[in-house]
Description:
Elements: H1 9-55, E1 58-60, E2 69-72, E3 75-82, E4 90-97, E5 101-104, E6 117-123, H2 126-129, E7 132-143, E8 146-149, E9 155-157, E10 161-162
Parallel strand pairs: 2-10
Antiparallel strand pairs: 1-3, 2-3, 3-6, 4-5, 4-7, 7-8, 7-9
Amino acid sequence: MSNKRGVSPLIATVLLIAFAVALGAVVMNWGKTYVEEQAEDVQERSDQQIVCTTDVDMKWWKRGSTKKVCYGPGYVFFMVENSGTRDLTDLKLIIDGENDVFINQSILNATFIKADVKRFNVSYDNATYGTVMQVILTPSIDIGGKTKICTGRELVESDPQACT
């Protein structure tokens, strides 16, 4: 029994410390990457929120006795001004009808330049969706080459009238 040899306590301590340091380095490296990714994501969302809040603004455009938003058989008509300081890349349209909700993810065919006014005459199936109850426009902008939707900057008309 006395001829069997084991690892000396000094070598065992050194091995345990080396293992703990190596494991700590792996965990710290993983944690660093995770924290950096989270910081980038938060920074991107923060930049988007700031730009959307400060640079994006729209308003309904009304000319003469024309209603801001009106509808007729088979269409919804409205005019919008880009009154913000940034060009819009797209507009999402939501029309809340009595029977169902009509959604068009993209109604722009070109950039909506700042200080510009655009007219829209959107096809709308009254038989399917019912009488127009509410019209909502949500703008999108380009940030760093990516299209971002500016939620919270919607333009809402809760009282659309029949066109005359």
